[in-house]
Amino acid sequence: MTRRLAMLCAVSTAALACGSAFAQEDDITQDEPRRERAGAIDQLTDVITVTATKSANPENVQDVPIAMTAFGEESLEVLKVRDLEDLSFSTPNVSLEDVGTSRGTANFSIRGLGVNSSIPSIDPAVGVFVDGVYLGVNTGVVFDIFDLESIELLRGPQGLLFGRNTTGGAVLINTGNPTDEFSAKARIATETPVDDGRGTWNTFVQGTVSGPIVEGKLNGKLSAYYNKDGGYFENLENGQDFGKASTYIARAALEWFPTDRLSVLGKIQYFDSDGQGPAGQNRGFFERDTFDFAIDEEGDYKSENWFGTIQANLDVDFGDGEIVNIFGYRDGDGSTVGDIDSTDRFLFHSGTEFAQDQISNELRYAGTFDKADITTGVYYFQQDVSYTETRDITRDLPFPFPDVPNPNAPPTFYGGGEQDHTVWGAFGQIDYSVTERLTATAGLRYSHEDKEGAVTYIRPRPECSVVGGTCPTSGTNPFTGEPNDFTDDDSWENFTPKFGLQYDTGEGALAYASYTKGFRSGGYNFRITDVPVFLERVVPALGGFAFDEEEVDAYELGAKFQSNDRRLTLNTALFLTEIADMQREVNVSDPGAAVVQNIVNTADARIKGFEIDGQYVISDSLLVMGNIGLIDAEYEEVLYDLTGDGRVTQADLELKLPRVPEATYGASVIHDLDLGDAGAIVSRVSYQYRDEVAYTDNNLGWIQAADMLDANIAWESPYEGVSVALYGKNLLDEVQAGNDTQLPFGGPLSTGVAEPFAFYPQGGTLAPLKKGRLIGIELILER
User: For the chain, give me the number of helices (H) and strands (E)?
Assistant: First the structure.
């Protein structure tokens, strides 16, 4: 730790020297007048405009009758946000994490609604939209983000104005647009664990250049990003640093103004990432509150994709409105290898191949007619997804047998699936000013979704690839005598209304009430490993090969207040969410296939809760922020056996709903000290608590509570555009995992250790670890 801190100090000195050199090259001296700076408190209390209502003009977040949190560019800078996971502990009742098994696979949950799976055929409960384009799968979502204009977190179902129905909420990511004045920005950061027995340095470099190409007609922007992670953890099996990864991102944008009324904005991004597999902790061997793990397969992760958008905006006289068309394209593929048994033996190793391409188009109009604001449009989305999974089971003898090869190990499992998914939609919303203060909202969306699935059961079979088109699609499995696959198609259509009332006092206060319906379409499970159970239990329960849609009725009462001087901001909401036919991936430990994962409609449930967040400017140099989220969730009716005892009983009804923390709360303090000719120092301390949650439906898997403490201190130098920051994340060194899946392989701790939910009769767990405490330094150069 001493060596790392000494190196960090050396890097700090070099960064300051680099900043001085940068300033000298720009012929700026301390004798020259220092530019008038916008203080951090002013920036954090400035108006944040959002796109959530898709109106013709962006709105102040405080004027939008939706429970949401928006982070502008300055807020993201203060929070040192690197990826979406960094916002998991910044907002009430929101969890933005990856599943851990496959790096970058979103495992998002908002208000207790989320998925717990890396199976790409499952529609996310929380939708992610980048520059207005919906990402069709949760694979490759939780990666490095940079050069952002804003991030908007919408809590509750967004079944009306957005391209896809999402039952939990939506994450809107808006990347930076080209500017009409020249600007350039470079950012260099490096961070490291400071605790003994951890890994090594993680370095980030990014740069952006933006400005006019043809004055008043064409603006352009180029951005590049590189991250080299040397590995945060130590693999106790070989003593090597673990968690290594490298990521490259290149982005280009052009904005064209052919007329005063028409603008066309095009963006394209290339992404490439390569790293090791999950840092899986088997809690049959290692204590849950440690970062200890030992695996014999370091694994691999590869992901590559292209993502592009074209947005055209046309101002029209009709209703003094705007017509917007957003076209999106995404094409990507990837592969993984992981040590799923999370031990130093070869008990359960798995690999995957993945490919996806999607196109989408949204055409909408927004305008005003006397007292009515109207938004209407049509939407199209199409994606093809294919997935291959391999499993190698018990190549070594399982515990407690000696560590020797297993002569009776089964052949490699191969299988997966393909899915063609098409969506058509049409929507409309009217906001009518009943009085000067009272506005009534009514809206309706029609959605039609078709899915064609072809699933190859993941069973022992000769080597094949679903992605490569070499797996059998008919006949009988030569090893098991079971059928090889099934093909099927199904469709779902729905009308999702929204009704609301909004009262604006005209004194910075807003009250609203709303009802929204959302749904998540059904689909097919690409990961079927126990064919008899699937055919004899799951198919009869579903009434076919496809699991059915999930429907949500959401009721919300909310209030927002912001004083005229913006010193005090306060937002609160009460919500009730009723879920019918909840979609869940039910995990069951199985010695024959290691883990069986059936996707079924498990239950009807009710979730109710309360949220409050806000900020107060104590003085011109001191700002405090806070948030509280409380949730109460319970099953109303259980439709599928969750405990695994073969029947639905009162015991199933009394289980905790997965992914629902009963309480989240936190606070931040930000101080801005103006040093005059010496610059300024901006410091922040943030604390956030989240309750423990059940992870699996049978409650045998769970994620412990967490107290997260972050801090940073930045020096804004007197040289224009030069700043240096020191920061620390997870300073209390809390242990968190991406999931907690039971396995039939375990060690000494699996013999009866009492835990809050159960004692793990399955033997052990796959619990991919998140990073603990780290310290970093960042240098920013900006013109």
Answer: 6, 39
Q: What is the CATH number of the domain that holds 381?
A: 2.40.170.20
Instruction: Answer whether 84's CB lies under 8 Å from 68's CB.
Output: no
SS3 5: helix
Percentage, residues of the chain above pLDDT 90: 66
Q: How many domains does the chain have?
A: 1
Name the token pair of 227: 């991250």
437-486: per-residue pLDDT in tens? 999 999 999 999 999 999 999 999 999 999 999 998 888 988 888 899 99
Residues in the chain: 783
- φ and ψ at 53, to 5 degrees? -90, -5
Q: Evaluate whether 70 touches 151 at the Cβ level (below 8 Å).
A: yes
Q: Do residues 172 and 152 touch, judged by C-beta distance below 8 A?
A: yes
For residues 131, 136, 142, 143, the Cα torsion angle rounded to the nearest 10 degrees is -60
Residue position matching structure tokens 């019918």 = 580
Those residues whose C-beta lies under 8 Å from the C-beta of residue 25, and which sit 6 or more positions away, are: none
pLDDT digits (tens, 9 = 90+) for 17-70: 444 333 433 443 344 444 456 677 877 777 777 777 777 677 788 888 888 888
pLDDT tens digits, one per residue of 560-584? 999 988 899 999 999 999 999 999 9
Residue in 417, 345, 365 with CA at minimum distance from that of residue 594: 345
Instruction: Report pLDDT for 38.
Output: 66
Alpha-carbon span 274 to 92, nearest angstrom: 33
Residue of 501, 497, 498 whose CA lies nearest to 440: 501
Which range of residues forms the domain containing residue 94? 2-782
CA 611 to CA 631: how far, in whole Å? 9
Task: Identify the residue whose tokens are 């952002």.
Answer: 148
> What local confidence, expressed as pLDDT, does residue 21 receive?
39
Question: What six digits make up the tokens of 498?
Answer: 């929204």
Bridge partner list, 278:
none
How would DSSP label each residue in 140-162?
A: T-SS---SEEEEEEEES---SSS
Given the DSSP bridges, would you call strands 68-72 and 764-768 parallel, antiparallel or unpaired?
Answer: unpaired
Contacts of 209 (CB under 8 A, 6+ apart): 183, 184, 221, 222, 223
Residue indicated by tokens 């560590």? 403
Is there a contact between 701 and 589 (Cβ–Cβ < 8 Å)? Answer: no
Q: Do 342 and 381 contact (CB within 8 A), yes or no?
A: no
Strand (E) or helix (H) holding 423: strand 413-433
Residue 439 Cα distances to 148, 364, 367, angstroms: 32, 22, 16
Angle at 620 between CA 619 and CA 622, to 5 degrees: 60
Reported as a single tens digit per residue, the pLDDT across 56-108 is 677 788 888 888 888 888 888 877 787 788 887 778 898 888 877 777 777 88
Region of residue 185 (left: phi > 0; alpha: psi -120 to 50; beta: else): beta
Q: Return the sign of the alpha-carbon dihedral for residues 503, 172, 730, 224.
A: negative
Respond yes or no on whether the N-terminal peptide bond of residue 472 is cis (omega within 30° of 0).
no
DSSP-assigned beta bridge partners for residue 624: 616, 669
- Quote the CA–CA distance of 465 and 471 in Å, as a whole number: 5
Terminal-to-terminal C-alpha distance of the chain: 36
Secondary structure of residue 10 in the 3-state scheme: helix
In sequence order, what DSSP letters do the residues of 690-715 get, joined into one string?
E--EE-STTSSSEE--EEEEEEEEEE
